[in-house]
Design brief:
Shape: elongated
Mean pLDDT: 93
Strand order of the largest sheet: 2-1-3-6-4-5
Largest sheet: 6 strands, mixed
Radius of gyration: 27 Å
CATH superfamily of the largest domain: Ribosomal protein L4/L1
CATH architecture of the largest domain: 3-Layer(aba) Sandwich
Region (Disordered): 45-77
Oligomer: single chain
Strand content: 5-15%
Pfam family, one: Ribosomal_L4
Helix content: 25-40%
Number of strands: 6
GO cellular component, one term: ribosome
Number of domains: 2
Subunit structure: Part of the 50S ribosomal subunit.
Protein name: Large ribosomal subunit protein uL4
Structural class: alpha/beta
Low-confidence stretches: none
Number of helices: 7
Length: 209
């Protein structure tokens, strides 16, 4: 599929680029997308949750009442989870939530995500640009030109660009990444994906392995 290349003012440059059918026009695999997004979110979890259990509570260990004849259930320690102030029974413990996915499945998921966005006309190709110095004002002017002020946008650069990255860092609704940092979650989470011209070849190369 061919897409027009826009400049930073949102105007058509008169040039068009070919988006690879093997990346941007495949039949999306929704389950692959789901698994990759699930893995990304799982990897964000710290897994440091912890509650004190019976053995970790400060308190007496003496038997609080006799075993029989009270008419109530037997109880051995005030630290039992059935009493107020006792330890929590089967509480959360630190754990690692991450899990493994095959590289081929992750590539399929990213291609599916790009294809979904392409079908929704949510992909824009922008000519390469740079800033002389980091200024949020410069980046917001590009968002205004592309009508992305109130939308979640993802900018994919061909190579790391410190000035562009720093110019966008204060904007919650926009994110700037390089090819190596692309994830299925980031693509699906954006309302509009903006690909710089220099990023296209490497995206196709990385996802066609």
């Amino acid at each position: 599929m061919k897409v027009a290349v826009l400049d930073i003012n949102g105007k058509d440059t008169g040039r068009k680029v070919e988006l690879s059918n093997s990346v941007f026009e495949i039949e999306p695999n929704n389950h692959a997308v789901y698994l990759d997004v699930k893995q990304y979110l799982a990897n964000q979890r710290q897994g440091t949750h912890k509650s004190k259990e019976r053995a970790e509570i400060a308190g007496s260990t003496r038997k609080i009442k006799k075993q029989k004849g009270t008419g109530t259930a037997r109880a051995g320690s005030i630290k039992s989870g059935v009493f107020k102030g006792g330890g929590r029974m089967f509480g959360p413990r630190p754990r690692n939530y991450s899990f493994k996915l095959n590289k081929s499945l992750k590539r399929l998921a990213r291609k599916s995500a790009f294809s979904i966005k392409a079908k929704e006309n949510a992909i824009v190709v922008l000519e390469d640009f740079n800033f002389d110095s980091p200024k949020t004002k410069n980046f917001t002017s590009i968002l205004s030109a592309l009508d992305l002020q109130n939308k979640k946008s993802l900018f994919v650069l061909g190579a790391s660009n410190k000035n562009v990255y720093l110019s966008s860092r204060n904007l919650k609704s926009s994110e700037v990444l390089t090819n190596s940092e692309i994830s299925t979650y980031k693509i699906m989470n954006a309302n509009q994906v903006v690909l710089l011209e220099s990023s296209l070849e490497e995206i196709v190369t990385n996802l066609s392995k």
